Amino acid sequence: MNNILNENQITAMRECGRILALAMGEVKKAVKPGISTHELDCIAEKSIRERGASPSFKNYKVAGIGFYPASLCVSVNSEIVHGIPSKNRFLKEGDIVSFDLGARYKNVCSDMAITVPIGKVSNEAQILIKNTSECLDRGIFASIVGNRIGAIGEAVFHHATACGLGVVRDLVGHGIGELPHMDPMIPNYGKSSSGPKIIENMALAIEPMITSGGYRVKTNPDGWTIVTADGSLSAHFEHTIIIINGMPEIVTVLN
């Protein structure tokens, strides 16, 4: 198995990305102060299943940790990724929240993430969200035939650091296809001359994870939730792309 897709897989991946983006759109629309993270998880799973796909994160096994118990990762403020939804956790005004969601359809997977403000947020949070989204754009623009994977990380890192932001080193983007996570790893830093060559029909999940402080991370006692070591805010954006005619095609477009 690899992340170089055939014609049938490309067709399925486009539909898988569309289904995932629709589900993420429903989650985003439902966000408001007072809503539980569990309710948002239910919205995401229902939307994916109603369209004939399945949530690829639910019961996803990670060696040494176990099975992820939800469909949607909900990470609030200093949480970077893998926050577990709970009936007892409610979003509040001023929070920023990152949603990471995956889907499987006809034996291919798609993956995406967004970070949104809850009501009125600080200027620091607004700047972080805006620039993390721009980091994703820069990484996607670098994803062309003739470049290497390192060009993606170099583009992300250059923009983030120019904005005075931290770039998480311990978590990376990845190839995607028949499995949710495949080679190559796509760090959000590096040199344009490094890594495998980007080639036609390659599927990639590019996902800058950027902080308002340092780059170091730690894991909460639940074994899943990864947070900034210094307690600074974190934002996360991700798209699944396929390289078509030498250029990146985004399959997880959020309208």
Give your account of this protein's structure:
With 255 residues, the protein is of the alpha+beta class. The chain has one domain: Creatinase/methionine aminopeptidase superfamily (Creatine Amidinohydrolase), CATH 3.90.230. The protein is 28% helix and 27% strand. It has helices spanning 7-30, 37-50, 123-141, 149-162, and strands at 54-55, 61-62, 66-67, 72-76, 79-81, 96-105, 108-117, 166-167, 173-175, 182-186, 203-206, 209-211, 217-219, 226-228, 234-236, 239-244, 247-250. The strands form 5 sheets. It has a 5-stranded antiparallel β-sheet with strand order 10-9-11-16-17. A hairpin with a 6-residue loop joins strand 13 and strand 14. The radius of gyration is 17 Å and the shape is globular. The two termini are 31 Å apart.
Keywords:
255 residues; five-stranded antiparallel beta sheet; 4 helices; 17 strands; 28% helix
- Number of domains as seen in the coordinates: 1
Which radius of gyration do the C-alpha atoms yield? 17 Å
**What string, H for helix and E for strand, traces the elements in order?**
HHEEEEEEEHHEEEEEEEEEE
Q: How much strand content do the residues show?
A: 25-35%
Number of helices: 4
| CATH 2nd-level architecture | Alpha-Beta Complex
Summarize the topology.
Layout: H1 7-30, H2 37-50, E1 54-55, E2 61-62, E3 66-67, E4 72-76, E5 79-81, E6 96-105, E7 108-117, H3 123-141, H4 149-162, E8 166-167, E9 173-175, E10 182-186, E11 203-206, E12 209-211, E13 217-219, E14 226-228, E15 234-236, E16 239-244, E17 247-250
Antiparallel strand pairs: 1-6, 2-3, 4-6, 5-14, 6-7, 8-12, 9-10, 9-11, 11-16, 12-15, 13-14, 16-17
